[in-house]
Amino acid sequence: MTHLHAGLSPETIEKARLELNENPDVLHQDIQQVRDMIITRPDIGFLRTDDAFILRFLRARKFHQTDAFRLLAQYFQYRQLNLDMFKNFKADDPGIKRALIDGFPGVLENRDHYGRKILLLFAANWDQSRNSFVDILRAILLSLEVLIEDQELQINGFILIIDWSNFSFKQASKLTPSILRLAIEGLQDSFPARFGGVHFVNQPWYIHALYTLIKPFLKDKTRKRIFLHGNNLNSLHQLIHPDCLPSEFGGTLPPYDMGTWARTLLGPDYSDENDYTHTSYNTMHVTHSSSNLERECSPKLMKRSQSVVEPGTLKHEEQHENENTQPLLALD
């Protein structure tokens, strides 16, 4: 077994072989083939090209070397084209810090039955006088950078649940085509993560309307992985077991504490106001796995931005063949 598989269980290594075409016998050759393509893009500064880094791009594209290189190039090109987004790209950056404290994103400690990490977004918690959409996107990308260091997640992937409860039309009006495209390019086209599903719950009609804005930017594979559940818990639970979900989504876990992931990145002494001074978490120097960090975080409850959804808000409905259970959007 190559050193690049250190820490992976035999089951996960076998899953990578079956689902991602990962072959330990030729792993270094696969990585080198991608690295050799870098010379074809002198316009891009490839700031990191070590084996472990390139491997995550191969896994994200099921070991198709050309596709993996294209993703690697887009990763760095996106950062070159959006330099301001990645200045001071650390958890203690004021904009990123505020977004993290307000629960953008939420990250569940436990994984689902397929080993995927579950990310949560409570859309109504977006205080537009406090957080810009770009800072929320930066906080999400920073969080993914931390999480993707875990090789298990490179193989198993992620699930995203977006709760639109109480998300107003005024808030939705700020989701312009330009910023939605910025998010799609950053997540769909330029990041080496496997998204197994994007689930909308409690979405109002105007969120449906946003589909017409973002459809041109979505790939077919992405479209097939976004599901609109409305307030139908049954359709959600058919895809994500209730044992993995907090009570806001009809799950058996306690209500989600919005401060959990912020404390993981900022440290146990973080403040939910503006007086935080603890040493920041820099994603370029990851020294602990995210699972260890999550176990170590403080149980202190957050004063700001608790979930806007009370336990039991969503309804159990009889399953119907309607648009709420059909894929709407998706990441390729």
Structure explained in plain terms:
With 332 residues, this protein is an alpha/beta fold. 39% of the residues lie in helices and 8% in strands. It is built from 14 helices and 5 strands. The protein has helices at residues 10-20, 27-36, 51-60, 65-81, 94-101, 133-147, 151-156, 169-172, 177-189, 205-214, 220-223, 233-239, 260-266, 290-296; strands at residues 106-111, 117-122, 158-163, 195-201, 226-228. α2 crosses α3 and α6 packs parallel to α9 (177-189). The radius of gyration is 19 Å and the shape is globular. Residues 274-332 have low confidence and may be disordered.
SSE string, helix = H, strand = E? HHHHHEEHHEHHEHHEHHH
For the sheet with most strands, the description reads: 5 strands, mixed
Q: What strand order characterises the main sheet? A: 1-2-3-4-5
The overall strand count is: 5
Mean pLDDT over the residues: 84
Strand proportion, as a percent range, falls in: 5-15%
Short characterization:
With 332 residues, this protein is of the alpha/beta class.
Helix and strand arrangement:
Layout: H1 10-20, H2 27-36, H3 51-60, H4 65-81, H5 94-101, E1 106-111, E2 117-122, H6 133-147, H7 151-156, E3 158-163, H8 169-172, H9 177-189, E4 195-201, H10 205-214, H11 220-223, E5 226-228, H12 233-239, H13 260-266, H14 290-296
Parallel strand pairs: 2-3, 3-4, 4-5
Antiparallel strand pairs: 1-2
Helix pairs in contact: 2-3, 2-4, 3-4, 5-6, 6-9, 13-14
